[in-house]
């Protein structure tokens, strides 16, 4: 089959690799109809997380079941499915508690949590390819209505829609709450969409990319909420949010940027977004950190950050009594309900899609997405191996 293969930082190729097959009784093989490029894919792409050469990339996958192993009985050949990016066993202590993001059995390295085509998440190939092997298929796969309707909405169910939603869950967004979201990348935009659906009364989205901020302004239109875009290249963001909330600050803050947070000139400051959030979230408010931070980052901008030590203003966070939730999103916790919101027309996460291309165009799409080229917000790849 054809697949997007990682060779070295900034070097990918679309090439022929072995077809995945059913290896264990509980496996399924999916024919991929859509696989997205994610901001997380840029970590290995830029060499900021070490990935083994030869790995097939892609953890945002959906498609049609091509084959199932003899132990699979819920999922059938021909089913249309979404594949959560967390690859989980379904029976360990964390999985049974609903924390598939920290499965204790799926990652042979011993680190809790496994995934497809990603550093330190196990040996599993990704789905930016014609086919994908899915272990523990009955547990992991989410059924979708058959056909092709809502393809570019449903494709957000494998990761970023649940991840944005998880950010708002950790930040305890509820009806009437005020919310500040840092990062207007796909995850931040999904957090804004989720905050609106959850009934927030006021949502700010901060970034320095004008094209992404324009999308942020639409994130609440489904429910009639006007989202306020804050351009960090032009404004003092803390002042803008404090002024916009009559000096109170917001109830809830979502971090959707991660360890490569930078100023408008591109200079990285690993703690800047966390510091900003500690300032704008009111005392006893809540913070959801879904942007990724790494235990090791040899290319980090500060010495401590090379070892995962991000020196943010924890003193003020403590004094204000903020709660802080972090981590990978346990996609299965939310994906059924978010699917049904799409089917019922309440959510339409596809508003962020900027490009839909064939697998052969993946190398160029990665380059443009990595450069944050104007208008490259979310790229969907269609392998189309019918
Ligand atoms: N927790 C999870 O389960 C999970 C899942 C998916 C992605 N992620 C992570 O979420 C983060 C965002 O993902 P994405 O796909 O949206 O990535 P992205 O890189 O496309 O978006 C990040 C955005 O942050 C903006 N930004 C950078 N510095 C900023 C600052 N100081 N203030 C405001 N905005 C700033 C950038 O301009 C960019 O638009 C990444 O760290 C990604 O790895 C986490
Ligand atoms: Zn992703
Ligand atoms: Zn498990």
UniProtKB/TrEMBL annotation:
Residues 26-142 form the Alcohol dehydrogenase-like N-terminal domain. InterPro entries: ADH-like_C, ADH-like_N, ADH_Zn_CS, GroES-like_sf, NAD(P)-bd_dom_sf. It holds the Pfam family ADH_N. The keyword Metal-binding applies. PANTHER family: GLUTATHIONE-INDEPENDENT FORMALDEHYDE DEHYDROGENASE, ZINC-TYPE ALCOHOL DEHYDROGENASE-LIKE. Belongs to the zinc-containing alcohol dehydrogenase family. This is Glutathione-independent formaldehyde dehydrogenase. It comes from Terrabacter terrae.
């Amino acid at each position: 089959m054809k697949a997007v293969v990682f060779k070295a930082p900034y070097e990918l190729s679309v090439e022929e690799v072995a077809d995945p097959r059913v290896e264990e009784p509980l496996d399924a093989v999916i024919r991929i109809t859509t696989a997205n490029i994610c901001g997380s894919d840029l970590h290995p792409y830029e060499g900021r997380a070490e990935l083994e050469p030869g790995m097939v990339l892609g953890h945002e996958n959906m498609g049609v079941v091509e084959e199932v192993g003899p132990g699979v009985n819920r999922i059938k050949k021909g089913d249309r499915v979404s594949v959560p990016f967390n690859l989980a066993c379904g029976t360990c202590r964390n999985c049974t508690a609903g924390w598939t993001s920290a499965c204790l059995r799926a990652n042979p390295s011993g680190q809790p949590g496994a995934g497809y085509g990603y550093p330190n998440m196990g040996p599993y190939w990704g789905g930016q390819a014609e086919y994908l092997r899915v272990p523990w298929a009955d547990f992991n796969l989410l059924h979708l209505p058959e056909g092709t309707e809502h393809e570019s909405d449903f494709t957000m169910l494998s990761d970023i829609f649940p991840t944005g939603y998880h950010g708002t869950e950790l930040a305890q967004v509820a009806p009437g709450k005020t919310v500040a979201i840092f990062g207007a990348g796909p995850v931040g935009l999904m957090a804004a969409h989720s905050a609106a659906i959850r009934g927030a009364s006021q949502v700010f989205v901060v970034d320095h990319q004008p094209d992404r901020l324009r999308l942020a302004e639409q994130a609440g239109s489904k429910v009639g909420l006007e989202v306020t875009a804050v351009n960090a290249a032009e404004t003092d963001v803390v002042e803008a949010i404090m002024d916009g909330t009559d000096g109170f600050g917001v109830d809830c803050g979502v971090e959707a940027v991660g360890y490569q947070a930078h100023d408008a000139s591109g200079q990285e400051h690993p703690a800047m977004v966390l510091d900003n959030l500690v300032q704008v979230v009111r005392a006893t408010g809540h913070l959801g950190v879904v942007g990724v931070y790494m235990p090791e980052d040899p290319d980090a901008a500060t010495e401590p950050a090379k070892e995962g030590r991000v020196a943010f203003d924890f003193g003020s966070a403590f004094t204000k009594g903020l709660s802080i939730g972090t981590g990978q999103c346990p996609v299965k916790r939310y994906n059924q309900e978010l699917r049904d919101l799409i089917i019922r027309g309440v959510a339409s996460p596809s508003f962020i899609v900027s490009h839909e291309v064939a697998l052969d165009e993946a190398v160029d799409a990665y380059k443009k997405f990595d450069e944050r080229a104007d208008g490259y917000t979310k790229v969907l790849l269609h392998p189309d191996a019918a």
